[in-house]
Specification:
The chain has about 180 residues and is of the alpha+beta class. It has one domain (about 20-165). It contains seven helices and three strands. The chain has helices at about 10-20, 30-40, 45-55, 70-80, 90-95, 125-130, 150-165; strands at about 105-110, 115-120, 140-145. Helix 2 packs parallel to helix 4, helix 3 (about 45-55) packs across helix 7 (about 150-165) and helix 5 (about 90-95) runs antiparallel to helix 7 (about 150-165). The radius of gyration is 21 Å and the shape is globular.
């Protein structure tokens, strides 16, 4: 025997609207993917999510206004709401100006006679991996720098390479791998 639900769709939507908001952080990655679809640029989704995944957890050390996922979501939402065409190069330039890129982190060991520092490299290492690699005597330092890191030209190249690699058509011709 199949049991009927006693809640209506209206009851479910009222509950859902009280528990989820399209502007909350948990929804941001979906908003990024949706915005890229609306902008007819779904080829960017993979590259942006791989990049942002390396910052996962770092937002806990940043001001709310510099949360990586929210910054990217807000940038893409601004493109959508202004009905602005999304050009590959323009997006890369705008992403390189995100405020979270000015925040740096390092494991630092200081003693009476020396100081050593291991910087976090966000293009090659996820934050959640970096923070688990503390060695004896090291302290985590997070600071805001005047310079973006990685440098804008390096990040722009990384982003565009990721986009092109994901969107170029496959060829099975000689010397080409699918």
């Amino acid at each position: 025997m199949v049991k009927k639900s006693t809640t209506s769709v209206a009851d479910d939507s009222a509950w859902l609207s009280q528990t989820r908001d399209v502007t909350d952080r948990q929804h941001a990655v979906y908003a990024i993917a949706r915005s890229l679809d609306l902008l007819q640029q779904p080829g960017w989704t993979h590259t942006l999510l791989v990049w942002l995944a390396n910052y996962d957890g770092f937002e806990a050390y940043l001001p709310d206004t510099d949360d990586p996922v929210l910054c990217v979501r807000d940038l893409l939402t601004s493109y959508v709401t202004r009905n602005r065409a999304l050009e590959m190069g323009r997006l890369a330039v705008d992403l390189c100006a995100m405020p979270f890129l000015n925040h740096r982190a390092a494991w630092v060991r200081e003693s009476a006679d020396q100081r050593s520092k291991r910087d976090w490299m966000p293009l090659t290492q996820p934050w959640l991996e970096f923070v688990t690699e503390q060695s004896a005597g090291e302290e985590l330092h997070v600071w805001r720098s005047d310079e973006a890191f990685p440098p804008p030209d390096v990040l722009r190249s990384w982003l565009l390479n990721g986009f092109v690699t994901r969107t170029k058509p496959f060829s099975s011709g000689p010397g080409r791998r699918p």
